[in-house]
Design brief:
single chain, about 65% helix, mainly alpha, about 180 residues
């Protein structure tokens, strides 16, 4: 006398339906009383089963890339969760946090509360260039009037003003902005 179909299925790590199909197809043979002799049927199972037709073992876990684990840890730390390790629930939590952040950003874009970074940088660049050009043209516009009021040579006044404006603009260009 052997074991039941379910007990053998548990022993093999398959469903009892798989054992029934194997009996029906003739890959394995049950005893006359319907039970399974484990040693005999294990040999039949191994001999008559095509490994290429088998599903991958569910016991083996698939390796998770380090980048994915780092992304989960970063997202969880941003949301205030500092638990160690990466469990399935932590990954699900990280996924939900990312969805919420994405939806918040999309909503802010729809409300026109966000500014396109590339457009903002281009706008600031154009404004700074316009300001620089205005300063560079300023000595040419005012040097003659200032020279007349001070009763000095207009050309000398223009050259001096232009050199000081260029020096000042050069000093301003050395300032490095801090972006938070």
């Amino acid at each position: 006398m052997g074991v039941s179909l379910r007990a053998y299925a548990k022993h093999r790590g398959v469903s009892d339906t798989a054992v029934r199909k194997a009996i029906k197809s003739g890959r394995i043979q049950a005893e006359s009383d319907g039970t399974i002799d484990i040693d005999k049927v294990d040999k039949q199972w191994d001999r008559n089963t095509d490994r290429a037709q088998q599903r991958k073992s569910s016991g083996a876990t698939k390796a998770v890339p380090k980048a994915a684990l780092d992304a989960v840890a970063d997202t969880l730390s941003e949301s205030g969760n500092t638990g160690g390790g990466s469990t399935y629930m932590q990954a699900r939590t990280a996924n939900e946090v990312l969805k919420a952040q994405t939806n918040r950003i999309k909503l802010q874009q729809l409300k026109k509360e966000l500014v396109d970074r590339a457009k903002a940088i281009a706008h600031v660049f154009r404004m700074a260039r316009s300001e620089r050009d205005a300063w560079l043209s300023w000595p040419a516009r005012v040097s003659a009037q200032m020279a007349a009021e001070l009763e000095v040579d207009p050309h000398k006044m223009h050259v001096m003003l232009e050199s000081y404006v260029r020096q000042h603009l050069s000093e301003l260009s050395d300032i490095q902005p801090k972006v938070d």
